[in-house]
Amino acid sequence: MAIDIRHLRRVSLHTTEFEESVDYYGGPWGLEIVDQSPASACLRATGPEHHCLELHASGYNGIEHIGLGLPSIAAVEEAADEIDRQGVQLLSTPADLAGPGGGYGFRLADPEGRVIELSTMVEAVAPRPVGSTPTTLSHVVLNTVDIDAACQWWCGVLGFRVSDWSEHQMVFLRCNTNHHSIAFNQAEWTSVNHIAYEVASLDAFMISLGRLRHEDHTPGWGPGRHGPGHNAFAYFIDPAGLVPEVTTDLEQVDESSWVPRVWRRIPELSDLWGTAGAPSPEIRGHMAGTPDPTASR
Ligand SMILES: [Fe+2]
Questions:
Q1: CA–CA gap between residue 132 and residue 256 (Å, rounded)
Q2: Which end of the chain has fewer CB atoms < 10 Å from its terminal CB, N or C?
Q3: How close is the Cα of 126 to the center of ligand 1, in Å?
Q4: Predicted local confidence at residue 59, as pLDDT
């Protein structure tokens, strides 16, 4: 029985600058705070997901959990059984979830200790009018110490598919028609590389850059358009030093005909527009992140 993951629901982050980050993502970044306590906050985009970002006050930056959506309680229970059969230890068994938005799900950890929550039946919220602010979480890129092991585990255990490689440096994984919802970058330590938020159009993308510029936030890399995934990109640095990306127009994959490619890592393929130039040493440093103290490898 395949594990029926339908979408990337949310990312939950540990952040060293909690209050400033809530102000940043709830302000010029364009998300909306839907739940807040002294040490955690949930923020939504305009789409139908209850929230796409959680922030937790912490002594380090890193993944608290990655949320993935399944279509039914039966699918969640089948996933737990299948993962258990594969010998992967669950962190919790399927049950009602207590956090904001509720739902039904369970947690497990990948080989590097990243916590993953598979869930369904999360509370609905009314979509908000689409403007220039994010409509949804687009993708999460993770630094891994072993890209082949990470790729094998996420595909073998969770059922993700490889969309493309960027040489043997990055691998782009999908769970639906989006070219990638998760990507891995070979690195020296386990950490977060960047978190991307989708906006509705190229106009919305440029207006987002304008909105951020008016608040003195300029891209550390971009605007440009990537070869792999074909998405427009602009990367920023948040108050804690994590890297969020504004993106749009991500390539859509026809499952029945897609064949993965290997992209050479050359400037004209990193940025098809030729507008972005090379990423600065500063943004490269932030994308490398700080070693996750909870990492198991
Ligand atoms: Fe990205």
A1: 33
A2: N
A3: 27
A4: 97
Q: Distance from the CA of 7 to the center of ligand 1, in angstroms? A: 16
How far away, in angstroms, is 291 Cα from ligand 1 center?
Answer: 20
Which residues are close to ligand 1, an ion, with C-beta < 5 A?
Answer: 196, 245
Residue with tokens 């070869």: 227
Length of the chain: 297
State residue 87's pLDDT score: 94
- Look up residue 195 and give its two tokens: 């978190």
Give distance in angstroms: CA of 265 to centre of ligand 1.
15
Domains and CATH numbers, the chain: 7-120 (3.10.180.10), 136-288 (3.10.180.10)
Provide the whole-model pTM: 0.97
Cα 60 to middle of ligand 1, angstroms: 22
Encoded tokens for 22: 């809530």
Give the chain's radius of gyration (CA, Å). Answer: 18
